[in-house]
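Entry for the shared binder. Reason: the reviewer on the internal report wants the predicted structure included alongside the sequence.
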Amino acid sequence: MDRVLHEGRFLRLMDRDGWEFVTRPKATGIVIVVAVFEGKLILVEQLRRSIASQVIALPAGIVDKADSPARQETASSAAIRELEEETGFTAASVREVARGPIAPGATDEIVTVFVAEGVTKKGAQRLDADEDIKVHLVDLVELPQWLKAREQEGRMIDLKLYLGLSFLKPRAAR
């Protein structure tokens, strides 16, 4: 039986059979988008207060929970929306490549990874008032060195970025 231990603005601490975990009551999932524009990977950088560090990551966000099933956002539409909001780029379509729990010992979040196809520049970022996201376009050939340099500057690299890279086709196959 689930029991609410604490509820904040965005997170709820639960107890299920003696195991504590976090849930997001206003979300049905998390999406991550692997997007390449003109040979460059689209990355975002933002302060993550939980670890008190700037983090380099793939564009990502929550699938908003609707008040009725008929109005429920799909994971694929959330992926395109998050890409546009965070980066100003859009995708003609997205292809789901992986889905599963991200940290099942701590949260019930299910993450869906998408590869964006037909990526184009749409306009400016559309950030929430509390967001400060810097966009980086990094040539895939230079990515390992670029990430290492960011780590040496004190930034952290979201490990899901490496997961996302595994779904890109080799340059010769494009």
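Summary line for the report: The chain has a mean pLDDT of 92.
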